[in-house]
UniProtKB/TrEMBL annotation:
A GO molecular function held by the record: phosphoric diester hydrolase activity
Matches recorded under Gene3D superfamilies: Phosphatidylinositol (PI) phosphodiesterase (3.20.20.190)
Annotated protein name in UniProt: PI-PLC X domain-containing protein 1-like
Chain segments annotated as transmembrane: none
GO biological processes: lipid metabolic process
InterPro entries assigned to the protein according to its UniProt record, in alphabetical order: PI-PLC_domain (IPR051057), PLC-like_Pdiesterase_TIM-brl (IPR017946)
Gene name per UniProt: LOC115530726
Length: 320
């Protein structure tokens, strides 16, 4: 895991956002959580990738998983974060994008891991237990955990994981029937919301998929074009949604020109433009509210503070 302490090259976030939800004015404490601006991390567990693991993505490289140089290349571009889960929480991140997979030859019959191109070192239950421990010390902070993809998992794996989540978080879980606001979460003691994006989810303590809009391009201006269109045409009514600032390598030979760089360097180059777009959301040209905004390398260039501060610019309609 990443060590605590300052990071070089673009990192300016301090610890001012440790309990930022508790500091929001009373008028925002009764606003639905899907009307608040919430910072999130894209591929949250990307700091913990195991370069010795098999390759999961891209599928075209799975046959050459045994080649160290190929795994090293995947690791270079699949590493999306450099703060560990506790550091992300401390930095003010409140939405966590988590891809889950099972190793096909794992001797443990129920163990699962996170992944992004490669499996993580840490298993899912260990990481979620860490989140639960952090949440116990920060009861004013509402956490949104979005579990998805579920590679290699069968029904009994899902049932085990769902049972584990409901037992681990227990009375802290925000129920599907709830109308979550900060004030509701504080009064009820429910401040962990889990989205489980799979048909196996029939549990009223697990929320459905949270739509994640992203540009699927490495060009920041094209990301903004896609997000503006999504905000104009596809945002759900009375539900959560994510605008992802994350950049994506082009398919095929188009990726070759970027291989001398890293995802971090590309993110650092594009983030000023993308954060300028974030700052322009209130008042926005296409929408009356923004919700979750997620990024790679959440410690770079005041990303978290930029998103949190949007709440102070919220339109009067939502400030009442």
């Amino acid at each position: 895991m990443a060590e605590s302490g300052p990071q070089e090259g673009g990192t300016t976030e301090g610890n001012d956002n440790l309990d930022w939800m508790s500091k929001l004015p009373s008028r925002l404490q009764r606003v639905s959580l899907w009307n608040l601006a919430i910072p999130g991390s894209h591929d949250t567990m990307g700091y913990d990738l195991d370069m010795e693991s098999d390759i999961l993505d891209p599928e075209s490289l799975i046959p050459v998983s045994k080649l160290h140089c190929v795994r090293a290349l995947i690791h270079k571009w699949a590493t999306t974060q450099e703060l560990n889960i506790c550091q992300q929480l401390d930095a003010g991140v409140r939405f966590f994008d988590m891809r889950v997979a099972r190793k096909p030859d794992d001797p443990d019959p129920t163990r699962t891991f996170f992944y992004h191109g490669l499996y993580t070192h840490s298993d899912v239950e260990t990481v979620l237990s860490t989140v639960s421990h952090w949440a116990a010390g920060h009861p004013t902070e509402v956490l949104l955990l979005a579990l998805s993809h579920f590679r290699g998992m069968e029904d009994h794996h899902h049932q085990h994981l769902i049972d584990f989540i409901t037992q681990l978080f227990g009375a802290k879980l925000v129920l599907v029937a709830d109308q979550p606001t900060l004030r509701f979460c504080w009064d009820s003691g429910r401040h962990i919301l889990v989205s489980y994006d799979h048909p196996a989810n029939h549990n009223l303590q697990m929320w459905r998929k949270i739509p994640y809009f992203y540009g699927n391009t490495i060009v920041p201006s094209e990301v903004v074009t896609v997000l503006d269109k999504k905000l104009r045409t596809q945002t759900p009514i009375n539900y959560f949604f994510v605008c992802g600032l994350n950049l994506t390598l082009p398919d095929g030979l188009g990726a070759l020109k970027y291989l001398s760089k890293t995802l971090r360097s590309v993110t650092l180059e594009g983030l000023p433009f993308l954060l300028d777009w974030v700052n322009r959301q209130y008042p926005g040209p296409f929408n009356d509210h923004i919700n979750i905004i997620a990024s790679d390398f959440v410690n770079l260039l005041d990303f978290v503070s930029t998103v949190v501060q949007l709440n102070g610019k919220m339109p009067a309609l939502l400030n009442k």
